[in-house]
Amino acid sequence: MKISTKGRYALRMMVDIAENQVNGYVTLKDVAVRQGISKKYLEQIALHLSQAGMLRAVRGYQGGYMLSRPAEEYSVHAILQAVEGSMVPVSCLEDVPNTCERCNRCKTLPVWTGLEKLIFGYLSAISLQDVVDGRINVPAAD
User: Fold this and answer.
1) Exposure pattern of 56-88 as b/e (b: 16+ CB <10 Å)?
2) Which of 31, 65, 129, 131 has fewest C-beta within 10 Å?
3) Which CATH number fits domain 1-133: 1.10.10.10, 2.40.110.10, 2.40.128.110, 1.25.40.80?
């Protein structure tokens, strides 16, 4: 599984908004300047995050974006899923229950199911506030 630029930028945008919304709404223009990301691209990402209920938007002068809830209530997994869609490592895990014709005899399915659980568990355990505060424990490689 590979996180796209959209997913990486969504997380950076959410961190930026969380850090800068203390003075009210944060403009995408300001986020774009601080993060070195196109404002146009941020608009697309903000739309996904707004539709997912993660951002509140206000138009006009003094407008911009603000988190809908406190940063500790957002997991990195939820943010990525809002812009990336499914986070499963292989397509046969898209449907629950699994509709793959081979799932009952596939010897590799447990590999992908285990990987999905690891990805979900790791990304769900990290809150947006953890990222803002730099409190991320990276598992040691064996």
Assistant:
1) eeeeeeeebbbbeeebeebbbbbbbbbbbeebb
2) 129
3) 1.10.10.10
